[in-house]
């Protein structure tokens, strides 16, 4: 596509401003989709044009001076339309190289959710957007679908946060043990509970504190309702719920168009706020002490980095939360494989 996602345009007929967004009706680059904005700059209707008529229908608007780099970390369990089943989010490498239809669909859905955040962030003035694939082996997103840098894994994302202005978490899930949640877990299914500085966290809460270690705020989270509730009660950023799960594990998916409006709108609002000078409060991330509780049967001994404080409880603390995260990752590597 020759029109960059996140371009700010204006409908020549009506004068309505709009943001160029990914096409959701078909996986096609010969059409251009835009979300029109109302007077509050909130996305309303989705319009799709053939690429060749787009340039007759829309004028390009200059994007006001905004902010620098935004790092988008992407997971899969909380992505729009992804079912509450591990099989749907299990990469091909884990299933003998065969890409299942369900996993393929989840990859496409993840790409769309991330591109919506890219669109909102750019339209609000983010000069550079970096995407970090952070699900399983970090090999779910195809670089060809993005016109920005695609990094692999949380460590690469955290490095990219150096000097960045904001982080967004797209496609996330609730912590281990959360009820009424889509595929809840914390880093690995072997972990029962994780606390940082006394606050129980899931992955979004952990990542918000690691980002804070770089001085960067998490300004928007998209994921299932349980993930949104968890992070709202913790750091209070903008959230977009993609689906909710009842007590029986049955998922109620929101429509893609509803979610699209909200991801684009929230990403736009969050970055626009930063560009206007809002400084969100960072969560407490010092001393950054991790307390990890492991499910019975997966215990290992402590070592020089990790103090074993009870049968299945461990404490990790170094000079900085980022070093502690490194020690935590090495600790998880030592845990026995899931049976
Ligand atoms: Zn994941």
Top keywords for this entry?
six-stranded parallel β-sheet; alpha/beta; binds zinc ion; Rossmann fold; single chain; about 350 residues
State the major sheet: 6 strands, parallel
- In DSSP terms (H or I, runs of 4 or more residues), the helix count works out at 8
Instruction: Write down the secondary-structure element order.
Output: EEEEHEEHHEEHEEEHEHEEEHEEEH
Number of domains: 3
What's this model, at a glance?
By secondary structure, this protein is α/β, with parallel strands linked by helices. The protein has three domains: 8-60, no CATH class; 67-275, 3-Layer(aba) Sandwich (Rossmann fold), CATH 3.40.50; 290-334, no CATH class.
What is the fold's blueprint, element by element?
Blueprint: E1 8-11, E2 17-21, E3 31-37, E4 43-50, H1 51-57, E5 58-60, E6 67-74, H2 86-89, H3 101-123, E7 126-133, E8 149-152, H4 154-160, E9 166-172, E10 191-196, E11 199-200, H5 203-213, E12 218-223, H6 225-232, E13 238-241, E14 243-245, E15 251-253, H7 256-275, E16 290-294, E17 306-310, E18 313-316, H8 321-334
Parallel strand pairs: 6-7, 6-9, 7-8, 9-12, 12-13
Antiparallel strand pairs: 1-2, 1-5, 2-3, 3-4, 10-11, 10-16, 14-15, 16-18, 17-18
The protein binds zinc ion (ZN).
Residues 75-77, 135-136 line the site of zinc ion.
């Amino acid at each position: 596509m020759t029109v960059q996602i996140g371009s700010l345009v204006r409908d020549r007929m009506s004068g309505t401003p709009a943001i160029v967004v990914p096409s959701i009706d078909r996986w096609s680059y010969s059409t251009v989709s835009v979300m029109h904005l109302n007077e509050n700059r909130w996305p309303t209707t989705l319009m799709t044009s053939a690429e060749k008529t787009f340039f007759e229908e829309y004028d390009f608007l200059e994007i006001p001076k905004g902010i620098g780099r935004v790092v988008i970390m992407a997971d899969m369990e909380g992505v729009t339309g992804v079912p509450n089943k591990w099989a749907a989010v299990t990469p091909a490498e884990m299933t003998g190289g065969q890409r299942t239809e369900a996993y393929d669909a989840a990859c496409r859905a993840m790409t769309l959710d991330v591109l919506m955040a890219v669109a909102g962030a750019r339209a609000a003035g983010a000069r550079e957007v970096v995407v970090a694939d952070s699900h399983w082996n970090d090999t779910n997103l195809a670089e060809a679908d993005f016109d920005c840098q695609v990094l692999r894994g949380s460590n690469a994302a955290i490095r990219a946060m150096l000097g960045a202005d904001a982080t967004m978490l797209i496609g996330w899930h609730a912590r281990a043990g959360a009820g009424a949640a889509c595929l809840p877990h914390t880093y690995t299914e072997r972990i029962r509970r994780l606390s940082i500085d006394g606050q129980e966290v899931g992955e979004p809460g952990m990542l918000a504190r690691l980002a804070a270690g770089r001085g960067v705020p998490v300004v928007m989270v998209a994921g299932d309702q349980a993930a949104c509730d968890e992070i709202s009660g913790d750091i209070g950023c903008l959230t977009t719920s993609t689906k909710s799960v009842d007590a029986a594990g049955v998922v109620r998916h929101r429509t893609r168009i509803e979610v699209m409006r909200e991801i684009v709108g929230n990403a736009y609002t969050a970055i626009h706020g930063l560009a206007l000078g809002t400084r969100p409060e960072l969560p407490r991330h010092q001393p950054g002490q991790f307390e990890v509780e492991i499910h019975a049967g997966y215990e290992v001994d402590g070592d020089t980095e990790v103090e074993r404080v009870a049968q299945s409880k461990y404490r990790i603390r170094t000079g900085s939360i980022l070093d502690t995260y490194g020690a935590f990752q090495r600790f998880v590597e030592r845990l026995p494989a899931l049976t």
